[in-house]
Design goal:
heterodimer; A: 524 residues; alpha/beta; Rossmann fold; 3 domains; 20 strands; globular; B: 333 residues; mainly alpha; ABC transporter involved in vitamin B12 uptake, BtuC; two-stranded antiparallel ribbon; 4 strands; 76% helix; ABC_carbohydrate_import_ATPase (chain A); ATP-binding (chain A); repeat (chain A); ABC_transporter-like_ATP-bd (chain A)
Chain lengths: 524, 333
């Protein structure tokens, strides 16, 4: 006990003027967790005080979600201790977490769409209940009480008939009905309207006033600085620091979140002589009903253009809109000086614009089909006779040629793609793009799930393609990747381009600012 | 990493013979042929009638026409669909053509109209699946019941006797060219033809892409709805062809024909390696599946096993074959 409390008392003296409740309700000590070779948590410490709203900040992959999943019993740590109220606990399942008084509102909505709001809210209680029959009237009455404070939702409606933001509120209501001491909210405002978000913040403060501790995960600096007491920052699976929000600036948090040195993993940048005025892609006032608005940018010959932004900001939606994969898009798109009027993605492929999907297994490749068949999927006519017969030798020759160019490692071209490593699978997906001699490639998270070696190779391939005159546009959630690979980065925030960085301005700090806060002037 | 590097040396040279044999052994078809051969050997000792020309011919005739439907079903399964209405639609083809013939229409014209009608039924199902967005299972279940109802309605529930069919029409179902029945020749043409198309043409390659990963196919510019519409329609059209051959063979149109046929046909395709999830399957394998089921039925009949036992054994074979395959696939992954 004493060992645990000591550092907190010590800190209390340090932080004069904030002598509020210093009871530590939850303490995490030296927690580690690995997924295969990936170390998601590398000895993390964390302390949550009674009745505080504690923000967690960090880039994607920093380890926040893993830590929260461990606290909620969804994942088990490899080593380290968790203390609740000073007693060491083992949280072996979400049910145990619930009994301990830990509630978790996930970022993804996990409701049963075909039953009523009331039944969803009391799912856990019903599960624990010993009575044989359901008492629907009591259930709805209790649900109405909880929902009353959140907004106007009828407890008797089916969840699937609710809007996404109302579903999110039901998730929150679900957590509120649990008798919890620790409440984890993972990006709860991502799907909420501004008004609903304000109601949520009010409720959070009221709960905190009652002594409930809240862990609040958000990428939005404004929310953290308006509503939270303290903020802890994570980076690459490490705990970095915990600070009082009142004493710091958003800049400090962003600096703590990033602050990595870029090494030589990345290929050379565009040389001065390669800089041209030639424009490959010119996009003017591109809008989609709900996803993005007035997007205007150009992609010059010889450069690699990056698009940064938080998840859900509209990065993928913009490029998918350009090549007509989804969305109802208006605006002007010009390729190599010619105005395009694309209707379907087929038209886009015919024009030489291709999209490499961020979800390789979901919609990028055909896992159980052969390497050769995967590579030829975009334009089968290329490897077929005029009568529509596939020429096996030509198909294999094409796969072999592109495989060699990308340094693809495989046993036989007739092996299924599922037999390859993640990096080589991605190379097959890229080979598929190259098979049509594209003029412009959109690459969405081109190195997701790819090991370091293959990653560097893919980056070099992109540089070579750009130098040879192919337009390259890269979307990535990994800022070091964007900074290392791209010559220029556009930042998207809430469906609009909030800024552009190039050269020496291309820092993680600047990009994070534009992505989470908006234009620089609005911060101070 | 070390492993991966050493593997790169291979693709430059042609694959070695060893890997070819290994691949042959891994193929579903090889295993099926082995099982069928074992059955043949065992049965030729167990029953003197088994390895006779008459029995062989009867066995092939038993699955040849259904085999045409198996072809359609396999292609549909590869594209990710399923059709429960094949039995009813086959019967409906007989009934439509038979009814038209009895009402004075030339039998060839009647057959053409009947096949066209079955094609239209397939297109109708394809519309509900691709445009309305219903599942194949539900749509074809409804059509199964509707088509059967139409058969009974059109015939009053009794078979239509078509004894007046001209001999040149009956020749399709009953005649032989040399020692080989015409039915078997038609069956071979359909099987070899579609096996070739499925292996070699861009059109049918798109069926594999769509079934393997519909979203990835759409992201490759393939019009997946069109593909599914096509495979659904093709399956019903082949049912129409099968129905006409049955009619020529039996010289009658039976409204209750083909009840339970869908299970046989799906079982054959699945035993032959088609996956209900789509993306895999071959015509050759599916036909071997049909052969296996037919050999088992014939063997059990020759061994005087009760008909009721036969169903139990057929069902067990399906379950065993699919379990083994599932286990092997999981082990490989």
């Amino acid at each position: 006990m004493k060992q645990i409390r000591q550092p907190v008392l010590f800190r209390k003296f340090e932080q004069i003027g904030l002598a509020m409740i210093d009871d530590v309700i939850l303490k995490i000590s030296n927690l580690t967790k690995s997924f295969g070779p990936v170390q998601a948590l590398k000895g993390v410490d964390f302390e949550l005080r009674k009745g505080e709203i504690h923000a967690l900040a960090g880039e994607n992959g920093a380890g926040k979600s893993t830590l929260m999943n461990i606290i909620d019993g969804i994942l088990q740590p490899d080593s380290g201790e968790i203390y609740l109220d000073g007693k060491q606990v083992v949280i072996s399942s979400p049910a145990v977490a619930q009994k301990l008084g830990i509630g978790f509102v996930h970022q993804e909505i996990a409701l049963c769409p075909d039953v009523t709001v009331a039944e969803n809210i009391f799912m856990a209680t019903t599960n624990l209940s010993r009575s044989f029959l359901m008492n629907y009237r009591a259930l709805e009455k209790k649900a109405a009480e909880v929902l009353g404070q959140l907004g106007d939702i009828d407890p008797a409606t089916l969840v699937r008939d609710l809007s996404i933001s109302h579903q999110q509120l039901v998730e929150i209501a679900k957590a509120l009905t649990l008798d919890c001491r620790v409440l984890i909210l993972d990006e709860p405002t991502a799907a909420l309207t501004e008004k609903e978000a304000q109601i949520l913040f009010k409720i959070m403060r009221r709960l905190a006033g009652k002594g409930i501790s809240i862990i609040y995960i958000s990428h939005r600096m404004v929310e953290i600085f308006d509503n939270c007491d303290r903020v802890s920052v994570f980076r690459d699976g490490n705990y970095i620091t915990t600070r009082n929000v009142a004493e710091i600036q958003p800049d400090d948090v962003v600096n703590a979140m990033v602050g990595r040195v870029i090494d030589e993993l990345y290929p050379r940048k565009q040389s001065e002589s390669e800089k041209t005025d030639g424009i490959i892609l010119d996009v003017r006032n591109l809008s989609e009903r709900t996803r993005f608005k007035d997007v205007t940018f150009e992609l010059r010959k010889g450069e690699i253009l990056g698009i940064a932004g938080l998840i859900g900001a509209g990065r993928s939606e913009i490029v998918k809109g350009i090549c007509r994969l989804e969305g109802d898009v208006t605006g002007e798109v010009t390729l190599n000086g010619r105005k395009l009027s694309l209707k379907t993605y087929r038209d886009s492929i015919a024009e030489g614009i291709v999209y490499l999907s961020e979800d390789r297994k979901g919609d990028g490749i055909f896992l159980d089909m052969s390497i050769a068949a995967n590579v030829s999927a975009l334009k089968l006519e290329q490897v077929a006779t005029p009568f529509g017969l596939i020429a096996g030798t030509r198909e294999e020759a094409q796969a072999e040629r592109l495989g060699k160019r990308l340094n693809l490692k495989y046993g036989s071209l007739s092996d299924p793609v599922s037999s390859l490593s993640g990096g080589n699978q991605q190379k097959v997906a890229i080979a598929k793009m190259l098979s049509v001699n594209p003029k412009l490639i959109f690459l969405d998270e081109p190195t997701r799930g790819v090991d370091v070696g293959a990653k560097a190779e893919i980056h070099r391939i992109l540089r070579n393609l750009a130098s040879s005159g192919v337009g390259i546009l890269v979307i990535s959630s990994e800022l070091p990747e964007l900074i290392g690979v791209c010559d220029r980065v556009l930042v998207v925030r809430e469906g609009r381009i909030s800024g552009e960085v190039t050269g020496a301005q291309m820092t993680e700090e600047n990009i994070m600012h534009l992505a989470s806060v908006g234009a620089k002037a609005t911060i101070h | 990493m070390e492993d991966a590097v050493s593997v790169t040396d291979a693709p430059n040279g042609k694959p070695a013979d060893v890997s070819f044999i290994r691949k042959l052994l891994r193929m579903r078809e090889t295993g099926l042929i082995a099982i069928i051969l074992v059955l043949f050997i065992v049965m030729s000792f167990a029953s003197p009638y088994f390895l006779t020309w008459v029995n062989m011919r009867a066995m092939v005739m038993a699955f040849a026409v259904e085999g045409i439907v198996v072809v359609g079903m396999t292609i549909l399964l590869i594209s990710g669909g399923i059709d429960l209405s094949v039995g009813s639609v086959t019967a409906l083809a007989m009934v439509i053509a038979g009814w038209l013939f009895l009402n004075g229409v030339d039998p060839w014209v009647a057959s053409a109209i009947s096949i066209a009608a079955c094609t239209a039924i397939g297109a109708f199902m394809g519309f509900f699946v691709t445009r309305v967005g219903l599942h194949h299972f539900i749509v074809s279940l409804a059509i199964m019941v509707i088509a059967r109802g139409a058969c009974l309605l059109g015939t009053g529930g009794r078979p239509l006797g078509l004894f007046t069919l001209p001999p040149e029409f009956k020749f399709i179902g009953q005649g032989s060219i040399g020692p080989i029945p015409v039915v078997i020749l038609i069956f071979l043409v359909v099987v070899i033809g579609f096996d070739f198309l499925l292996r070699r043409t861009t059109m049918f390659r798109k069926v594999f892409y769509t079934g393997s990963n519909e979203k990835a196919a759409a992201y490759s510019g393939i019009r997946t709805k069109r593909v599914v519409f096509f495979t659904t329609t093709l399956c019903s059209a082949l049912c129409g062809v099968a129905g006409i051959i049955y009619m020529a063979r039996f010289g009658s149109a039976q409204p209750t024909f083909g009840i339970g046929m869908e299970l046989n046909v799906i079982a054959a395709a699945v035993i032959g390696g088609a996956s209900l999830k789509g993306g895999s399957g071959t015509i050759f394998g599916a036909i071997l599946g049909a052969v296996l089921l037919s050999v088992v039925s014939s063997s059990l009949a020759l061994l005087d096993v009760s008909v009721y036992w036969q169903d139990i054994i057929r069902g067990s074979i399906l379950l065993t074959a699919v379990s083994i395959d599932h286990y092997l696939v999981k082990k490989r992954a």
